[in-house]
Amino acid sequence: MARPGSVAEIVTVIREAATGATDVVARGCGHSTRGESLTDGIALDMRGMTTVHWVGDDRVTVDAGATWREVLEATLPYGRMPPVLTDYLDLTVGGTLSASGIGGTSHIHRTQAANVFELEAVTPEGEVVTCSPTHRRRLFDTLRAGMGRHGVITTATLRLIPAPERVLSCRSRCASAAELIAAQSRISADHISGQYNSSGFELKAVVYDASSPPSGLSPTEVEELTFFDFADRMRPDVEKFIELGEWEQPHPWGQVILPAALAANFIEHTLADITPADIGPSGYILIKRFCPGHVPMLRAPSDAVIFALLRAAAPGCHTVAQMCVANDQLYDRAQAIGGVPYPPLPVPELTQAT
Prior knowledge:
Its cofactor is FAD. By secondary structure, this protein is α+β, with helices and mostly antiparallel strands. The chain is built from 11 helices and 17 strands.
């Protein structure tokens, strides 16, 4: 593993690796779901490059190895935030942009990859390039959601929007997947998501700087939080998993993006066969309707639902191999109705940066 501290060091590694046909893979915090950050070649530990270079009114420029927590901590003092944050903040900017990055606000603001003004990257040929929607567009489109196979993102200029001070988080039960997905489209909320657990389907609708729940929602639970506490809501769960030893267990997640019109039947059919051993004690099942935006490598339907089986292969549950087989079956079924795996399956590297 190499831990570069500069773009020049990345260039050196890539060019030297090319002479020996050695694979080079960028690695952020190591949270890839199918082992994408693992390689028999050279892993580039991007956590050596974590600088937040500049915060403006509508944008921020950051190193790809910075986490979304580090970005948010840099922008909140200016009253700004990225439009889309992942549920778990300790993921790198380069890592989630390479997958696309879906969050609770993606029904409004699309994916994280759709909120990028500019990228700097090192291509497979070792060339340092800058690309954007108006300059070297093809490379820009293949880096975003390209799973790192078309170059190593080194810096990103990201869109910013005004940040709220407080949020009102509301939970409500739904009778079915169809009702949950319909509610996610009908309810007007700044952040919206859903999950399935032992109690059934649950909708979470969050409104910013509001004193009452969204119109049309009769919540069973309402909680007021500071915005940062809400954004960092996964931390207590993660600390618990670390304490129990479950955080270090393999997590072979199975995630698919489905056409919204066909998602409910697909989800209900899948859940009918799911057992606790399929998911694991610390696993989650998430359901979220969202808009992908213009991210060609994601290849997602325009009106989409992400269905995520966030498996944890703990002792007493199915093995990693069994969970991976189940994920492959999930991908095949999703593709049969026009869905796609998430993160996107890598495609061969570009030979030219254009």
